[in-house]
């Protein structure tokens, strides 16, 4: 009898082990399939529109910024990706009274894909939609890299997750695609979301993957292989940092540069983009960044200077990292 029980236990464990292995293999195939829907061609097509003169530099509260939010909304509507606010209302209105120095009322843009198993746990993928507008001499600051690159990356990631869901492979956790306003003037949009009106409770928010300038190459990496600066990945969750490293080594093998992650970094980039308002609330973050360049905050930050091949791979990397976080059994631990 004991031999039969032992044999049954062995067979059962073997079946479970094989099933787990098959699931892992299936998951690898799925994530690679949907990551490949992110293309340099689509990123380029969108960015040439988003960083065009028509959008007048997307300064917070100004007409060009209003055109930008319509562009983002229309993308989600056309792809059938809903808003978490209400049907056909993708704009989180921020009143003029919330801003300082005469900044006009503005909007964050929100879309989401509901999770299949853990819908109340939220993975946030963010980028800022604004830029610095028109210079005093009348030149338009198009902000192709800052942060047109992050904006179109979020849109392509949203489309990839949506394709997965339509194919029956939607994420276990919900994904919030968060386009925030007012970053250039003081992180206003992310501050409003986290401090005033978190559409999803912050205690249910698993991570914020923030994408701010990912389309260029800085002087340090000119002529080299694809890379990214990662900031904040180990500040609140060792597990997030390890997961991020593993995903990169398994699928992409980019150079991860942690120069700006140093505690004594004089640039203080950790405090200078929208992820920080999530980190202040004890939510793990990664800030993806290509570093500054000669065209930073200048009219010469134009879409023809973007490295679209690099942008494609970087966007696929972020999508794959989000996929893993959204589909793992346990939520990320904060330590």
UniProtKB/TrEMBL annotation:
Peptidase M28 domain span: 108-319
Molecular function via GO: metalloexopeptidase activity
Single GO biological process annotation from the record: proteolysis
Coiled-coil regions listed in the entry: none
Superkingdom, taxonomy of origin: Bacteria
Protein name: Peptidase M28
High-level lineage: Bacteria, Pseudomonadati, Bacteroidota, Flavobacteriia, Flavobacteriales
């Amino acid at each position: 009898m004991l031999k039969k029980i032992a044999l049954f236990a062995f067979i059962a464990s073997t079946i479970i082990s094989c099933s787990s292995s098959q699931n892992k293999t299936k998951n690898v195939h799925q994530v690679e399939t949907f990551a490949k829907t992110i293309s340099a061609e689509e990123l380029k097509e969108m960015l040439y529109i988003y960083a065009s003169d028509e959008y007048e530099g997307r300064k917070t509260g100004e007409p060009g910024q209003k055109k930008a939010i319509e562009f983002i909304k229309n993308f989600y509507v056309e792809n059938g990706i809903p808003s978490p606010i209400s049907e056909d209302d993708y704009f989180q209105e921020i009143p003029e009274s919330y801003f300082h120095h005469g900044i006009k009322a503005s909007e964050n843009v929100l879309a989401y894909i509901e999770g299949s198993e853990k819908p109340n746990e939220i993975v946030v993928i963010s980028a800022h939609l604004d830029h610095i507008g028109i210079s005093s001499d009348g030149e338009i600051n198009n902000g192709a890299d800052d942060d047109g690159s992050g904006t179109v990356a979020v849109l392509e990631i949203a489309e990839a997750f949506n394709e997965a869901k339509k194919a029956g492979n939607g994420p276990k956790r919900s994904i919030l695609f968060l386009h925030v306003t007012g970053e250039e003037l003081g992180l206003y949009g992310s501050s409003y979301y986290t401090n005033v009106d978190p559409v999803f409770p912050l205690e249910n928010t698993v991570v914020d993957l923030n994408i701010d300038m990912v389309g260029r190459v800085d002087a340090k990496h000119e002529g080299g292989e694809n890379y990214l600066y990662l900031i904040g990945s180990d500040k609140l969750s060792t597990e997030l940092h390890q997961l991020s490293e593993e995903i990169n080594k398994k699928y992409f093998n980019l150079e991860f540069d942690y120069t700006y992650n140093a505690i004594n970094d004089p640039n203080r980039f950790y405090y200078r983009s929208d992820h920080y308002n999530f980190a202040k609330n004890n939510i793990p973050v990664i800030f993806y960044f290509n570093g500054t360049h000669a065209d930073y905050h200048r009219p010469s930050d134009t879409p023809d200077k973007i490295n679209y091949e690099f942008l494609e791979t970087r966007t696929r990397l972020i999508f794959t990292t989000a996929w893993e976080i959204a589909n793992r059994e346990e939520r990320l631990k904060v330590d």
